[in-house]
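call fold(seq) -> tokens
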Amino acid sequence: MKGSPEGGHRTRGGRDGRAPPPERARQAEGRAGEAGQGQTGQAQAARAGPRPGRPRFGEGTRAPAIRNAAKGWMAGFRRRLSAGELGALPVLLVLITVWTVFQILNENFLSPRNLSNLSVDIVGTGLIAVGIVFVLLIGELDLSVGSISGLAAAFFAVLNVNNGVPEWLAVIIAVLAGTTAGAVQGFSFARTRVPAFVVTLAGLLTWNGLMLYTLGTSGTINLDENGLVAELTSYYFPNDAAAYGLAALASGLVFVTSYRDRQRRRAVGMPHRSLGWIGVRTGVLAVVSFAAAYLLNRFQGLPLALLIFLVLVAGLDVILRRTHYGRQVYALGGGVEAARRASLGVVRVQTAVLAVSGTMAAVGGLFIASRITSVSEASGSGVLLLNAIAAAVIGGTSLFGGRGTTWSAVLGMLVIQSVASGMAITDTPVAVQFMITGGVLFAAVVIDSLSRRTQEAHGRA
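ret:
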């Protein structure tokens, strides 16, 4: 029969084509009525306003929001730790430990005077370490930075003191000499494909010999203590507003940059940080920055050397993380052959990286000469090269390439110089300083290796 279940036709009454029983229909109507009454009651309650004694929406929800943000941050933090993404955590723990130990041994370690001197002492070698970061990011090593720094200082001293060339012009020539030396090494490395540490080892001997030849028989040249270069490390901004203004500017820039990055990522549906996390991060930075400004103002004010150092580090960080060139540097650290297949200018990037390293070595050499107001045959030698490389690695820059920032060099240099300063205050032998620095460096390399293995296990390296 047509319309019968046997005929295969169905109606909207039920699965088998028959109308639902009266009892089932009444039960369904009852449930629908109860649901409608519930929705109506909710709507009436919403129109009537909140019940007495209960907070309005948004009132009293700040604490739960903070707790949720903290839980989210902790979950992400644990996830990054399990994946081997440690970031700056190890070096921060080491720095806190070093400061705590030396403060216990000598209460003057964290005094405004010592911290101010520490902030100036890190600049020369720190700038060289920032250049090393660029080279490490592509998985290579530059052994010539110490000799280039001494060569640049020698060029400046001979031009200015012996030949009367204006300081500003002598500074430009000295920095360009470092850039040229780095570019020559970079082009040789990129074209011949000889490992960079071999090319720069030859450069270490070559530039050191050229420095000795430039200085001549005198061996030592004293700089003008009132000159432009000498004031790089001797001038302090006496107005307290300079240090506090720098702290406020740094905090504001970090917030604006993080917020804009969040908006861009959110607009394209990418993972992004929450506003709470951005606020916490900016707040922590503001507390640290204003505390540092307060301590600096208690001594002589903001050092000019520290201001230049932070500006250069921040500028190079923007170049690395926000420009096409910086992305190419990181990509090259991920694999040279993969970069070539992706049509990246490998020769150009490698040459530019070594040129940046040479430039920063020259600038660092001028700051070191400014600190001691002289240039000698010992300039650029000793433990300068080792400290620069150690600072970059201790700060978290990977020896395998592709991971690290310019701020890594700052943190690593703080650790090394804090150890040196603490040893000097507590009259500890220099040999112990070398052993401690070597131990910290070894620990940093081990952590880097373990972190890379963990990332490879998670498929992220």
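Strands lie at 220-222, 236-237, 302-303, 374-376.
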